[in-house]
Amino acid sequence: MSRNTRSTVAGLLFGLCCLVLFAACGLTSHQRVLYDSAGIQVGIITDLSTDEHASPPVVNRHPVEFTPREIRSLIGSLEVSGYSGTVLGLFTNPQPKPVFTEAEILLLAEPLAAAFHQATPRERVFFAIQNPNATYETDRTSGSLFFRHDYFHVILTDHYAFQKADPGGGETRDLRDTKGMKLWVVAPAKVASVPDNKEPHWTAFEKAHISFKPIEVLAVQSRAAESAAQQPAVKTDASAAISTDSVNDLRLQVRELTSANLELRSRLKEQSDMIEKLKSQVDQLRGDAPTESLKPNRRSSAK
Asked: Closest Cα to residue 147, out of 204, 62, 224, 75?
């Protein structure tokens, strides 16, 4: 092979390598913003941890048909702990706090549900929330979500409650600074122990991640909601039973009082008849007394 031929082949190979690299770069940046309002963005991005050609294929369980209400239940179970980029933050014990505020959950539910309806098996859903109290700050609450196998995977890459360390000197903040963030779930959700063959490949930027089974969480929450809905009915039945018992007690008391009143009346009548009889006898005795006094005294006559 001549030198010119070898140069031509090398050039072609270099060009092919460049095309592959450019294609890969295009994949990493491929995303679609589906919702952008009130400082909140929701969209779909290519999931580079998927591999359709693997055996078995590594793909996400998308699209999924979760309702906004179910999405609220799932993301409402998330908590995060971390520290701000200060010396004091390194020596404090970080306390978990909700990843999303109640207002953010309400705003996110429908866009996330719509995004999961459109996502393909090789995509995941991403979100970004601006700090409502400091819109000029670069810190955002951001991350991505995807369903794979039986699990719901959550990655948190940033949170505006914790500030990145400021290197000073006008240098940009380190993107690898994850602020010591750690994700938690609150009951009834439970952290899932994902088998190695189903564990996603996490990159260096995905240190704060967590997985749980959405079906279990929604089932437990559904049972809890049904129990809460039945609780007032149980209380009502109990109140009705107590009310019925009270009425029965009152009726019994009224009957007892009526019987006692009748008995008292009977005794009073007997006493009244006895008094009248005694009066009659007294009057009779009084009427007999003068007659006896008019009889002649035999002793007086004999004298």
From this structure: 62
